Amino acid sequence: MRLDVDAAMGRALELATAAQEWGDTPIGAVVLGPDGAVLAEAANEREKRGDPTAHAEVLALRAAAQVHGDGWRLTGCTLVVTLEPCTMCAGATVLSRVDRVVYGADDPKAGAAGSLWDVVRDRRLNHRPEVTAGVRAEESATLLRAFFRAQRGL
Ligand SMILES: [Zn+2]
Q1: Cofactor comment in the record (predicted)?
Q2: Fewest CB within 10 A of the end CB: N or C in the chain?
Q3: Would you say the pTM of this structure is higher than 0.70?
């Protein structure tokens, strides 16, 4: 299946929605190959796995590397994620060598792709993916707001 960035974000939003079923914060990620084919997709599974590193981006990047055919390198690929990556995921994104990161909502409290830090475009690192922010951001933000509102029992 080949998707453009907007459609891939739509799929990531579906994955984010599903994460709520097992009590995880609604965040979803899709990795597109150089030709736009879907290599991998994942939702946040931190609660599901009891794993502090099981963020959607890390799970999707790992799965994509298993199928991409260039060892661990995801050169030419695009990571599409519903929320701005945290420091761990921004770091994993740089290490994976993806060409591009596309994200939805900004995360002013923990974002590491421009909000609190800018790990993905730090000139001290030898790989800097292109960043596109704000793709279908309102849909992602709405999903997150509703989730946290429900968690607070409001
Ligand atoms: Zn993360």
Answers
A1: Binds 1 zinc ion per subunit.
A2: C
A3: yes
Provide the domain count of the chain.
1
Give the H or E element holding residue 31: strand 28-32
Percent of the chain whose predicted confidence (pLDDT) is above 70: 99
Q: Please identify every residue annotated as catalytic.
A: 57
Cβ(112)–Cβ(119) under 8 Å?
yes
Q: What is the CATH number of the domain that holds 34?
A: 3.40.140.10
Query: Average pLDDT of the chain?
Result: 96
Measured in Å, residue 25 CA sits from the centre of ligand 1 at: 11
Residues, Cβ < 5 Å to ion ligand 1: 55, 86, 88-89
Residue 154 lies in a domain: no
For residue 71, the CA-to-ligand 1 centroid distance in Å is 22
Query: Residue 154: is its pLDDT beyond 70?
Result: no
Distance 69 CA to ligand 1 centre (A): 24
89 marked as part of a ligand binding site: yes
Q: Would residue 130 count as lying in a domain? A: yes
Q: How far is Cα 16 from Cα 45, in angstroms, rounded to an integer?
A: 10
Domain containing residue 64: 5-147
**Two tokens, residue 128:** 């800097």
Q: Does 153 reside within a domain?
A: no
